[in-house]
Amino acid sequence: MDLHDSSPTLRLRWMPFWAILETDIRTMLRSWIVRIWAFLLSAQSLIIMVSINELTIATETISGLLSLFPLVWSTIIIVLCSGAIASESGVVADSILSKAVRRSEYIVAKLCARSAIIITLYLATTVPAAYLVAQNGQGTVDSAGVVWAFTLIGLILLLLTTLTVAASTLFNRTLVAVIVMWFVWYAAGAITGILNAEYLSPLAIVDSLPGLLAGDFETDDLVRSVIGYVVLLSAALSVALFHFTRKDV
Questions:
Q1: Which domain holds residue 238?
Q2: What is the pLDDT of residues 29-50, one digit of tens each?
Q3: How many domains does the chain have?
């Protein structure tokens, strides 16, 4: 097989995916919700950085900063992602029916675009603040614990994004997707408790952050949480793809 001959074909094959991805990222960057959220996150981190003193307890401050994402900012993520598919049903119908783009490409591109924006804002506004707090605050912060804490919160945000995009494929109205996801997300603690899977509970992970940042953790438990979130992510994406590829548009 001639790689030079196949390369243009591969580029053409993936062109719709990259076009959707780029367009959605540009749309998100122009969104006032994203801009306001970015401003609030930046202001929040700036306030923490300028208020560091000898009384600042590093582990508690960093855990408080991280916990705001699953507890507070999750509402904004739900609003941002609930309209990923539902709000563009007419546009995607024309593209799919004309065979300009595959349904799976459309879903994955939308998910990647919104995940990229959310994770970029998350890391860009928390890493600098967490570093300064760890360097100048009171108490010792465990480096491995910091990596685990950022990883777990990042996985929580990715799961929420994937679930919300999946909900956007299941419901034709953005408002319905928002309400359903808001209820599911804030009932997640009870749901994981009933299923005896508290290691997947966002609330349980938030509660464990101070000890985690101080180095008080069991690696096996953390690995189990990571694997659990990866499985849930994969399941949510699979459901979205399965439903959308068979849905009338």
A1: 3-245
A2: 999 999 999 999 999 999 999 9
A3: 1
